[in-house]
Design brief:
Elements (H helix, E strand, L loop, with lengths): L8 H18 L3 E2 L3 E5 L7 E5 L8 E5 L17 H4 L10 H14 L5 H4 L16 H5 L11 H18 L12 H14 E4 L7 H14 L2 H7 L9 E3 L15 E4 L7 E2 L6 E5 L5 E5 L8 E4 L6 H8 L2 E2 L7 E5 H11 L13 H13 L11 E5 L8 H15 L1 H13 L5 H17 L5 H17 L3 H17 L7 E2 L3 H28 L1 H5 L6 H5 L23
Parallel strand pairs: 8-11
Antiparallel strand pairs: 1-4, 2-3, 3-11, 4-10, 5-7, 6-9, 9-10, 12-15, 13-14
Helix pairs in contact: 3-7, 11-12, 11-13, 11-16, 13-14, 13-15, 13-16, 14-15, 16-18, 17-18
Bound molecules: S-adenosylmethionine.
Length: 565
């Protein structure tokens, strides 16, 4: 995965040693003698951290002063105070991502300040962003991951946000700096897979604050100190997750995106995590063991609760057998296609036969309905491994709504006719009336589940059909092997070929779709329980509704939250 894969063992070890020496001698790190940077290239994991002696749960592995992480707000530490020369890095002109990208592009090219660090971080990545043209479409066929790689959008952001600032200082600060689009992608991917969100530096340095605190403590009698602490007042530490997304409402008190050398040397595994990074009250960062770690074991962090698709997209590896957070996204198009193909014929002979276009228009009407009584429409719906593939109610309700609307397409036809006659006037009022009528029919049981369930089934079947046959066969083979041996290789990872990593994502998604299909079959066979399925009624969902959602835009969130709460 990294440039280091071609380094000789000696060179690799020397770089690791120089890195650790730099951290302790120049960056104020305190590192436990029980841990060491280790070569895990033979397992496809690059560098990692190893326990060289038994470590107890709760032990500190290393501590980092807050002002020694690499972030825009720590830029005063002897590395040229780039922020003063390029105020746009910190004055809000650039968002936090773009600012850190530009900052690191500069230092990657010019700075000696972080050289030992840049020597140990990768120059190449195995994420789909760097795959050859057409490989993502080929290897990830069937998955919505293909549409989330975001290379074109990232490049547009680069041109729009970063290049104007580069242009302004091109003959001074950025003279000789590699500001190519390739360098942008490398640094952007580095931040995606290595950065942390840490609390901002508060006014005054750590040292100042420490000495103030020490003075206060000196003045405070020892017995009072103890009295102040109530039982249960144990310090609460904030756990920092690598690569955590910024919230939308970035403000001056919000976290800052930072590179935290050594904390980012830890590899991750959803089942094997035994350490995490915490931020103390004084701002310093501590990597702490969350379990006992025997000598010789790898020390693993967690990067968050990611499905394999996100591990591949963000970090360029996958876990064998998937993660507990695996999910499949069912898109609105999947629902519309199934509804058009499988909804019963219109009840009225004058009604229009459903088309993809008219059905999408119906979804758009529902989404645009300002005073919506429901919140059914989203870009996509997660079906998750944790719920054993049971789809969320909104997904099923939207299908039910579409089926009903197609069966009663007379209402839809009348709506369109009136709208046309009015020259588009009263659209909102008419839409509201149409949706209300349809919801009323749905809520009063005019839709039978026997009409809708075949469409539920068709959604999952059609989606499975989009994955390559070899992936479906692999899924069947694994299911048989699993039930034969009852073993589960949950702790292995898949690295190496792009196709192998992609297959791991696809197999997990097909497994979940098969679970969903099995659930639908049970539901169909067990009609009474199907009838218990509740269509969100107008009154019940009115309280939570009201927001208008548009379809058709690409949701930017990296990991879409499931609609299931
Ligand atoms: C924060 S870095 C960890 C340090 C990294 N191994 C290195 O050599 O610089 C994250 C990257 O490490 C690799 N990685 C992390 N956990 C891994 C795992 N369980 N299996 C394989 N590679 C892993 C991936 O390439 C990922 O993008």
């Amino acid at each position: 995965m990294t440039s280091e894969q071609f380094n000789t063992k000696d060179e690799f070890t020397k770089q690791s040693q120089a890195f650790v020496q730099w951290l302790t001698e120049s960056r104020g790190y305190t590192i436990s003698p029980k841990v060491a940077v280790h070569d895990y290239r033979s397992q496809g994991q690059g560098r990692g951290l190893i326990a060289v002696a038994d470590i107890a749960e709760g032990e500190d592995l290393f501590t980092i002063p807050r002002d020694r992480v690499i972030a825009i707000d720590s830029d005063t530490q002897g590395n040229g105070a780039l922020v003063q020369r390029v105020p746009e890095l910190a004055d809000g002109t650039l968002d936090d991502w773009s600012a850190l990208i530009l900052y690191l592009m500069y230092h990657a090219s010019k700075g000696e300040a972080f050289k030992p660090y840049f020597d140990v971080i990768p120059a190449q990545f195995s994420t789909p962003m760097f795959w050859d043209d057409g490989e993502a479409e080929k290897f990830l066929q069937g998955s919505t991951l293909v549409g989330k790689i975001g290379k074109t959008e990232a490049e547009a952001g680069f041109r729009e946000n970063i290049l104007p600032v580069v242009e302004k200082y091109k003959d001074t600060v950025f003279d000789g700096v590699d500001v190519s689009v390739d360098a942008f992608h490398r640094v952007g991917s580095l931040i995606m897979s290595y950065s942390f969100d840490v609390d901002r530096v508060k006014a005054g340095s750590n040292e100042e604050k420490d000495s103030e605190k020490a003075k206060e403590e000196e003045q405070e009698p020892a017995d009072e100190k103890e009295d102040d602490e109530e039982p249960g007042d144990e310090e609460e530490h904030e756990e920092l997750i690598i690569g955590e997304e910024f919230s939308d409402d970035e403000d001056d008190d919000g976290p800052v995106k930072a590179m935290v050398p050594l904390a980012d040397t830890l590899n991750a595994h959803s089942q094997l995590c035994n350490a995490h990074l915490e931020q103390e009250d004084d701002g310093s960062l501590v990597m702490r063991a969350t379990a006992a770690i025997p000598a010789g074991s790898q020390i693993y962090n967690t990067y968050g609760d990611f499905p394999n698709s996100d591990l591949l997209r963000r970090y360029g590896y996958t876990e064998l057998g998937g993660t507990a957070s695996d999910l499949v996204e069912i898109t609105v198009n999947d629902l519309v296609d199934a509804a058009v193909a499988h909804a019963p014929a219109p009840a009225n002979k004058f009604a229009e036969p459903a088309t993809r276009e008219s059905t999408l228009q119906l979804v758009q009407l529902l989404a645009d309905w300002e005073d919506g009584v429901m919140e059914l429409v989203d870009d996509s719906y997660d079906v998750e491994r944790t719920t054993a593939g049971v789809p969320n109610p909104e997904l099923l309700s939207l299908i039910n709504f579409l089926v009903l609307a197609l069966v009663r397409s007379k209402d839809l036809k009348a709506f369109r006719r009136t709208l046309k006659r009015n020259g588009g006037a009263d659209e909102e009022k008419l839409t509201k009336k149409l949706v209300k009528t349809l919801v009323k029919h749905a809520a009063t049981g005019k839709l039978t589940f026997r009409e809708a369930v075949p469409v539920w089934r068709a959604v999952f079947e059609a989606r499975i059909g989009k994955y390559p046959q070899a992936v479906q066969d692999e899924c069947t083979r694994r299911a048989a092997a699993k039930s034969a041996s009852e073993t589960d290789s949950i702790t292995q990872v898949v690295v190496g070929t792009r196709e192998a990593m992609a297959t791991e994502v696809l197999v997990g998604e097909v497994e979940i779709l098969r679970l969903a299909l099995a659930w639908v079959d049970t539901a169909l066979a067990d009609a009474p329980s199907v009838d218990e399925f509740e269509f969100p009624s107008a009154s019940a969902s009115a309280a939570s509704a009201g927001s208008k959602r548009k379809l058709g835009h690409n949701n930017k969130s990296q990991t879409k939250k499931s609609k299931r709460s």
